[in-house]
Design brief:
Layout: E1 4-8, H1 15-26, E2 30-32, H2 33-41, H3 45-52, H4 54-68, E3 75-78, H5 87-96, E4 98-103, H6 106-113, H7 127-145, E5 148-151, H8 157-170
Helix pairs in contact: 1-8, 2-4, 3-4, 6-7
The protein binds adenosine-5'-triphosphate, (3R,4S,5R)-3,4,5-trihydroxycyclohex-1-ENE-1-carboxylic acid and magnesium ion.
Length: about 180
């Protein structure tokens, strides 16, 4: 079975880490939307946020997501934590293939990312409070976008990769999620 899926979830939920290993195991290409975006803008997302602002970042993110989603065939796509904020992005993601929500509590995420300075939305102030706010705002959007929710609190990354593979193998729409020419 050729895997074609997108991972959504909070910043620090493991989309990049799990996505990369999943693509490797499944033998399909891997695209990390944040990395693709940094390549396009030629600087870090954090710097871009500071200089150009979040709205401009969201415009580019939507544009790039629509482009990347056109790539046919097997693919694991890790999105940015805020990719589900715009309704048009949620629609693009659902049309793209199976969408999995990597769910983790704000407290679990805080433990993982508290020493990481790359996430612009978690700098300054009280990062745990910010994670709680983001979670309250976005959890319904991740759920609305995703076909499956994977709890990531306890399992290791490699166990999560197995869980996602099993979930996709059982998915009734697995083949149907591929564009007609690929199915
Ligand atoms: N299941 C897990 N258990 C423990 N640590 C994890 C797990 N998944 C990811 N991590 C760790 O959490 C950190 C954040 O993971 P990662 O960068 O993959 O998150 P992300 O969802 O891509 O975040 P962002 O939206 O900011 O890009 C990394 O240090 C990673 O090693
Ligand atoms: O949660 C967010 O809104 C973000 C998460 C990251 O993946 C990046 O896309 C960026 O830092 C914004
Ligand atoms: Mg990431």
């Amino acid at each position: 079975m050729q895997i074609r899926c997108a991972l959504v979830g909070m910043p620090g939920s493991g989309k990049s880490t799990v996505g990369r290993q999943l693509a490797h195991r499944a033998g399909v290409p891997f695209i990390d939307l944040d990395h693709r975006l940094e390549r396009t803008i030629g600087t870090t997302i954090r710097h871009f946020f500071e200089v150009e602002g979040e709205a401009r970042f969201r415009d580019l993110e939507s544009q790039l997501l629509a482009e990347v989603a056109q790539q046919p065939g097997g693919l694991v796509l890790s999105t940015g934590g805020g990719a589900v904020l715009r309704p048009e992005n949620r629609e693009v993601l659902r049309q793209f293939g199976n969408v999995l929500y990597l769910r983790a509590s704000p407290e679990e995420i805080y433990k993982r990312v508290k020493h990481d300075k790359t996430r612009p939305l978690l700098q300054g102030g009280n990062p745990l409070e910010k994670l709680r706010e983001l979670h309250a705002q976005r959890d319904p959007l991740y759920r609305e976008t995703a076909h499956y929710v994977i709890e990531t609190g306890r399992p290791s990354v490699s166990t999560l990769v197995n869980m996602v593979m099993m979930q996709l193998e059982m998915a009734p729409g697995a083949a149907a999620a591929l564009p007609a020419a690929q199915a």
